[in-house]
Each structure stands twice: as structure tokens, then as C-alpha cells.
Amino acid sequence: MTRDETEAFAHRLADAAAAATLPHFRSALSVENKLDDAFDPVTVADRAAEQAIRALVFATYPDHGLHGEEFGVVSGTGEYEWVIDPIDGTRSFVSGVPLWTTIIGLRHTGSPVFGLVDQPYVGDRFWGGGGRARAIHRDGPARDIRTRACTDLSQATLMTTAPSALSGPGELDRYQQVEAVVRLARYGGDGYAYCLLAAGQIDLVIESGLQPYDVVGLIPIIEAAGGVVTSWAGDSANEGGTVIAAGDRRVHEAALRLLNA
Hints:
- The chain is an alpha+beta fold.
- The protein has helices spanning 3-21, 44-60, 90-95, 171-179, 191-198, 212-215, 219-224, 249-259; strands spanning 32-33, 41-42, 65-68, 72-74, 80-88, 101-108, 111-119, 124-129, 132-137, 143-144, 157-160, 184-187, 204-210, 228-230, 241-246.
- Strand 9 (132-137) and strand 10 (143-144) form a beta hairpin.
- Helix 1 (3-21) runs antiparallel to helix 2 (44-60).
- It is globular.
């Protein structure tokens, strides 16, 4: 697939997902729980958006694979796989908070090559891959985006969705070593936070417990904008798990040292 073809099709997928999600946002929505021992919400909007994306992918590229949060994995016969989260931040969605997004990622022979993240209620859309990251707000012009320079961790703005989500052994303590040093820490945002990083609004995102559909669509945007995304161990974040994203490699290295002290 060429970059232009990929980009145009990803926008079609985002438009289809938005048509499925927006009628349900801030409505009298029924919420189901996926888990018995915790709260992991899912709604008709999550499922409708993923179904809309799946229908377009398989009608247009029948050899492509697809990994979605709600309906699992369909293995393709070709080299491409779409990795999608129809509503990243369903807790925000059911609370009427416009920080949820649709995350659309594309892997080629297993590696993330393109991503698009859409917040249709606010009107923000971010996409990138192949060395160029862009964003648009509503009907305004598309613009190139870049991460911002941050030379010292003490000057950084850090986001995580919720400290309580850092539930693996020792994860919260390791995260707090970084939060204690930064200038400002903010909570909430899910995938939206990574886009703010790519656009130069914040400097760090640190999370854990992520799935591939949470992060594959984010990696190409951040890297194309000049940032870096790895695991807390400093290796690939392609499969999720512990994830740290930074706009400046100097801050990334400093945060990694604290996470692994």
C-alpha cells in the first residue's frame, strides 16, 4: 500500500467509526461490564464502530488481517494487519467526557507503519507514519505536528490515564519515582494523551497493562512527530504491556533510568 492510499483509507475508517459512535455519546446508553472482578465497560457504540471498520477493511482488502478489541483477531493471508480500538477510553465515553478516541493502526509484516487517532466530538484527528505526522481540527487546514524539546525531567509535563491502572508488581512505585520529579502530572486521556505529546503539548506518557490495539496506532504518529515510544525496559512497545512515550529522547532516557532504578 502506498502512503496516500493508506492515509485515505484510514480516514474512511475513522469517518465510519464516528458515524457509529457519535449518536450514542452523551445519550441514555446501556453499559455492560466485561469482567466479574473489576469494571471494564463496553457499549453498543464500541461494537458498532468496530463492526463498521471491519466491514470496510474486509470489503476493500480481503487479504488483510484485523485485530480489534471487541471481536478479536482475524488472520489475513497478506502482509498487512489493521489493529483497532473502536473506543479507547470507554470509561470516559460512558461518563460523557470527550477524551475517548478511535485508534486505527496498520502493521506491515508485524511492524507498525501508520496510525490515525480520531476524537470526533471535539473534532481532533491525528495521523502519521513514514516520517510525517499531521493533525486537523474540525474543518480547518491539516497541519504538520512535532513534539517539543524538553531538556530536563524537572521541566516535563507527564500524563497517565490513572495511577490505579499501574497494577503490576512494583509498577506504581516505579511510576511515582518519575512523577515526583516532573513539573506537572495530569491524569486521564488514554490514547488522546499520546496525541497531545505528538503535537507538542506534553512531554511524557507512562502506562502499563496496554494491549496491541491500545498502542499500535499511536507509535507511528509519535515517531513521525519526532518522539520515541518503548516499553519500560526500553524495547519495542508494539505488543503493549508497559509503555513510555516521550517527545524528547533526553527526557525518555531520564525517565527510563528512574523506572528501572
